[in-house]
Amino acid sequence: MNRLDEINLKKLKLLNSHIEDALKNPTSRYFDFGIYLKYFEEFEILRDYFKGNYSDLLLDLENKSKPESSKTTDFEGRGFLRRQVIIDLNKDIQKIISRSEFFETDSSKATQLTNNSQKIFISHGKSKDWIELQNFLTHQSRLETIELSQQANLGRTILQKLNEESKKCNYAIIVMSGDDTDPDGKAKARENVIHEIGFFQGTYGLDRVCILYEEGTSIPSNISGVVYIPYKHDEIKNTFLDLQKELKAAGF
């Protein structure tokens, strides 16, 4: 991290301590809007800073608007905020803090990439399509792959494991299948897949990430511009010819 990162992370941790203190009393259901609004305003500034510099690690962090007062006479007319709003703020703060150990400069990323071997990282959701993909890459194309669940945990968190194992590769293929559903009942990709699209694009570069997209899966607005190879349900093999072209262009 650079010096400004460190300063802003300290501010975020201080803000987090204020929020956690407020939540210590489980019986507190309402909070003074006038006091807590400033915490949301401070968080917005810090959130935008870290998302601007590390968007690949924070794709799933929403740009929420500041909450509104209840507009009641509580707290001398300032109104209140409900406990859940404060809990949600705490979760967002924790999300940034928990990933801060992976913040790094562009120059350090470049150094890592030059030392990587020619391996391909396979990212996926719940669908088993990735197994057919891995078999194609290893047995037909004779390429080495890494898939996260096949690697030893070694006491690492999922994020630590992802960060460390990704450094052994210099290209990623992401299977974006419709494993979950949104509130409207439309198929969507799992959150880890959306996060990893940004993570690998930030780590390897846009030209070293290939997305295999299951048709009918909704695409979040924050990644709507990505290029992908489409396939129908259970027909991922139909992407392999185009995938070979992408891999050849990338030097495999």
UniProtKB/TrEMBL annotation:
Write down the InterPro entries for this protein, in alphabetical order. CAP12/PCTIR_TIR_dom
Q: Which GO molecular function annotations are given, in alphabetical order?
A: DNA binding; NADP+ nucleosidase activity
Provide the alphabetized UniProt keywords.
Answer: DNA-binding
Per UniProt, residues of the CD-NTase-associated protein 12/Pycsar effector protein TIR domain are: 119-232
Source organism superkingdom: Bacteria
| Protein name listed in UniProt | DNA-binding protein
Source species, please? Leptospira congkakensis
